[in-house]
Amino acid sequence: MTTTLGLDIGGSKTMAVRAEGGIVVAEARAGSANVASVGVHEAGRQLDAILERVGAYGVEAVCAGAAGADTPEGCARLRDLLAERLPDAMIRVVHDSELVLAAAGVDDGVALISGTGSVAWGRHDGRTARAGGWGYLLGDQGSGYAMARAAVCRALAAVDRGEPADRLGQAMAAECGLRSTEQLLDHFYNHTDRRYWARRASVVVELAEAGDPVGRAIVDEAVADLADLVGTVADRLSCHGPVIVAGGMAVNQPLVHNELRTMLAARGIDDMRVLDADPVHGALRLAAQLLDRDAAALSG
């Protein structure tokens, strides 16, 4: 009976799933083991915690999808941490966007994540491509964070022009517990957690749905950015889908979801699906593939 382990390592948490003979027997959650975010020592500590909960004994193959696995160096650091704790296991480290297609049971297609951040990744005919995922300082266009930041920028621009606060500026200030839009400047720099601002993107979407032109303009720009990410990957791979979407903005905001579907259809991509499984199960599927390839190599 084979034993596999899947890990989904995000910026704030780590999810783990253990399977024996293809049946999930344990699941656990711990703090982030993202080396890029928390450092090697803390990442190792969180891996120890989650492996204690699901069991490190007997693991033959593990796949870890990590937001920080952007470079060969980042992958190597995480691989080393796993090898220290699972010395007898085959190990695969991938960017977390790769988990989306695997979790959907799709081999070829484009994965789009739009939550706190954003990224697109795809595979077609053995080739892969990625767009975005540069982080909040350089990109994350179409994400919840980017939408909230755009709302703050527009509110502050109105202050610069000496104009009264519009509905969106007032709503954003109120959501942050502020008395005026002028206070948004200091508040933004005093609250640097991207998740804090990503959660406030719902204010933008709600006003857009109510017909507010400023909110609608921000949503339209975000959707266009997400469609561009998908289009970049699809064009590079000559792939027309399916597109598997994940993340709170793309999945849980109907306006964003529906407008994205419409915009992708205009580009000739008609097959857009919502990921209906936790991405960590994609890591489990990729771990099982390691064993399948090893068995095929031995039999060959």
What does this structure look like?
The protein is an alpha/beta fold. It has twelve helices and ten strands. Strands 3-2-1-4-5 form a five-stranded mixed sheet. A five-stranded mixed sheet has the order 8-7-6-9-10. Helix 4 (144-160) packs across helix 9. It is globular. The model has no long low-confidence stretch (mean pLDDT 90).
In short:
The chain is built from twelve helices and ten strands.
What tags apply to this protein structure?
single chain, about 300 residues, alpha/beta, 5-stranded mixed β-sheet, 12 helices, 10 strands, about 20% strand, globular
Topology:
Elements: E1 3-9, E2 13-20, E3 23-31, H1 35-54, E4 61-66, H2 72-85, E5 90-95, H3 98-103, E6 109-114, E7 118-124, E8 127-132, H4 144-160, H5 167-175, H6 184-190, H7 194-199, H8 201-209, H9 213-237, E9 243-246, H10 248-252, H11 254-266, E10 272-274, H12 280-299
Parallel strand pairs: 1-4, 4-5, 6-9, 9-10
Antiparallel strand pairs: 1-2, 2-3, 6-7, 7-8
Helix pairs in contact: 1-2, 4-5, 4-8, 4-9, 8-9, 9-11
